[in-house]
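2024-03-11 09:14:02 DEBUG pipeline.ingest accepted 1 chain
2024-03-11 09:14:02 DEBUG pipeline.ingest length=242
2024-03-11 09:14:03 DEBUG pipeline.predict start
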Amino acid sequence: MPPEPARQGDDEPLRPGASLSQAWDLFHQAPWRFLGLSAAGSAAFIGLGLLARALQESERGARGALLIPSLVLTALSLTMPPLTVALVMRFGDGLEQRSSGQPPLPEALRRALLVPALQILLVAGLALLALGGWVLIQPLSDFAGLVLLAAVGLVALEQIITQLFALPMAVLTRRGPFEAIRSSHRVLAAHRFEATLLLLLMVAVAAGGLLLMVGGVLISLPMAILIQISCFRRWQRRHSDG
């Protein structure tokens, strides 16, 4: 299949730094709502994880009777982060523009689970490819094996960077999960440097909250998400205008 041609507006700068002030403006409009979403999602993730751990420890004397419940609780706990991210995205986007092009909320939440799963499978596939190639090449040349691992690692990192718009596209627009992943890669492949800056900015904001313990995390996590959707919506508006 030939590569999808660039569309008008794709080559315009993303300016991720401008998203920081926009994200703060959105957060400042309803801080308690964002704090509540972040706290509820974190509590559900931690609570379900602790219950699963308790069942796993109790399962030793239960002859496997608690294995399935513990696995179910573990799976449920892992769904909490992407669902929380999707809810923050939807609420923050509603404060900004109340777009009518959003999918229904249940569909958006389903996509919020599917998109990260597809992205993890993609990166895992690259990791398996690197491991298999290293096993074959390393006995012949240690240096060639390291070069292969480095090359595949760079490809995996490039995939992570160019997928930053995939979840906003899936949750906030009519694009399905596969189309969102393809579209995000097409758009951000033309803006790798700015997309890298966007990722670093999000990580820095999220990590900064860790220095302030629980209260800081409840602020920094939604702020990182709002930075992401602010950058995406700014690109989308310019693209539509073009």
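2024-03-11 09:14:41 DEBUG pipeline.report The chain has one domain: 18-241.
2024-03-11 09:14:41 DEBUG pipeline.predict end
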